Amino acid sequence: MKKKILIIGGGLSGIYLGYLLKKEGFSIKIVEANDRIGGRIYTKNSHTTNVELGATWLWRYNPELLKVCSSLDISLFEQNMNGDALFEAMRTSAPQRFQVPKNQEISYRIVGGTFEILNKLKATFTEDELELNQKVIQIDDKETSLKVTTETSSFIADFVISTIPPQVLVNSVHFSSDLDSGFKQIANNTHTWMKDSVKFALVYKTPFWKEKGLSGVGFSNVGPFTEMYDHSDFENTHFALMGFLNSSLANETREYREEKVNEQLFKFFGEDGKKYLSYEEKIWNEDRLVNYKNDRFITPHFNNGHAIYQQEFLNGKLIVAGSETSPKYGGYMEGAIYRGNQVLEQLKNKFL
Ligand SMILES: Cc1cc2nc3c(=O)[nH]c(=O)nc-3n(C[C@H](O)[C@H](O)[C@H](O)COP(=O)(O)OP(=O)(O)OC[C@H]3O[C@@H](n4cnc5c(N)ncnc54)[C@H](O)[C@@H]3O)c2cc1C
Question: Which residue has a Cα nearest atom 5 of ligand 1?
């Protein structure tokens, strides 16, 4: 009998695990609360240009992720850093040009957008194996199986893997049998990477910054954007800038943020900066599927990869996975892949 594995969450961790486990012959189902897969990978098409409102870069020191990309025939290209960068030190002075030192670690992007990884992985699923709009609210221990209840359905599985960020899991899903109190305490204090970030992207008709000898890189002590990069595509046919806004602006309206970005663009690039075709943003702090909102500060990466995540719960029927549970590169895409490989080995040893 094929073991039935239910995976909660259709981010990189959930989709990768579904792909791996299906390949090993397990019966899988992935339930995702949102109306899209990807979680913190969010490639949005805007004015026919793909912009990343979530994860963007990978690096040479991401061996597991690079292996996955290579096995899926996914191509990478270097983040464009050619040309001068701009730095705005003070409100009262114009941004200064400077050269970014050449010995920086190279960041790579994925041709077609980060979502390409998910596109390729999910191509192996049948319609029945991945369900959207299924927000899990409760998990009941039924001795030999687990019952997973969503807002509209319920599912029975031999084994469940949660890939919800641990802090969100213990604050949004109800467990009929008490979870280990040590686990709950650690999960509630596990930092979720980038949960407070505010990302923005601007699509342009032409890469006017390149014509001025600029790389599109901008840093600012003033804001609203604190850092910004060229975000044009590999083919160099679609042009964009992308960066991060000061997270204190999360409480303002979209109109206010765009107006302030517009003013800052004028300071950086003159009239050209203001001539964008579209403005996109994502306030991750507001996303209840990623961020459990409370006022407690948790140091970035705190408890990521804690040893407790190596345990199984609910009498050996639940594993808590997801990037933040990875002993290596917790919080990053590499962590999601590393932990996925680890869980695969654990389940192979257990069931095969
Ligand atoms: C703005 C930003 C920039 C980033 N930049 C980079 C980068 O450049 N490089 C890099 O390596 N990493 C980056 N990251 C981190 C990277 O995105 C994550 O490490 C990775 O995507 C995590 O995948 P995951 O599947 O573990 O978690 P998630 O992507 O958080 O997936 C969890 C999934 O669970 C779903 N879910 C939540 N609650 C429920 C529920 N109750 N029922 C069902 N489903 C539920 C969510 O909707 C989500 O789809 C960035 C993240 C952000 C937000």
Answer: 55
